Amino acid sequence: MSETEPLSRPTPPPAVSAIADPAPLGLAGFAMTTLVLSCFNAGFIDKSAEAVVLPLALFYGGLAQLLAGMWEFRKGNTFGATAFASFGAFWLAYYALVKSALPSMSMAGASNTNHAVGLFLLAWAIFTAYMTVAALRQSKAVLSVFVALTLTFAFLSAGAFANSTDMTKVGGWLGLVTAALAWYTSFAGVTAATFGRPVLPTFPPK
């Protein structure tokens, strides 16, 4: 061995796998699908064409958001993973509800379909409400999305239980507000990443 040769060579540090922030994708998928559905719930477009929501619910609000949730797990973000994976599953469940469950109940002559839909929406209102508590430790932008979404589910659930068009329309308007807030938060995340600095304020927790 040469006198100048070191006894041991330094071990190179392990390569760090950088994962892009999946939150803007998840928020965008949620926002777009919510916006389109809420236009029908608010009464802007006749519900006979509501099936146009289904492709978005399956691929963008559903699959893309579910993947965003899986990437949040990889980043170690429990809140983001739970939120995106759950709401991705919500849109997939909505697709199955409209495509399969409701037609089956209609063929079976079920008389309480509106109560079943109300229960479905109520369960999501409860989930969103406790996620809103967790969102108190997130940015104000994220918190605003969860507050608006909790109200949206609450009014849509009440509208379904009571078979009330007016309550459903209120839920539709709240859904539009929710979509706008989610898109804002997504846009803030994308521009912060691409510009290398915050462009829009999200008001992080102190």
Our measurement of the CA-to-CA distance between the termini, rounded to an integer number of angstroms, reads 59 Å
Number of domains: 1
What is the CA-atom radius of gyration, in angstroms? Answer: 22 Å
Question: How much strand?
Answer: under 5%
Helical fraction equals over 70%
Mean pLDDT: 93
**SSE class:** mainly alpha
- Name the helix and strand elements from N-terminus to C-terminus, one letter apiece: HHHHHH
Number of strands: 0
For the largest beta-sheet, the strand count, sense and barrel status come to: none
Silhouette: globular
What topology emerges from the helices and strands here?
Blueprint: H1 23-41, H2 53-75, H3 78-107, H4 113-134, H5 140-162, H6 165-195
Helix pairs in contact: 1-2, 1-3, 1-6, 2-3, 3-4, 4-5, 5-6
Task: Provide structural commentary.
The chain is an all-alpha fold and 206 residues long. The chain has one domain (23-194). 72% of the residues lie in helices and 0% in strands. The protein has helices at residues 23-41, 53-75, 78-107, 113-134, 140-162, 165-195. The longest helix is centred in the C-terminal third of the chain and has 31 residues, at 165-195.
What's a quick, concise take on this entry?
The protein is mostly helical and 206 residues long. The protein is built from six helices and no strands. The protein has one domain (23-194).
Highlighted features:
206 residues, mainly alpha, 0% strand, globular
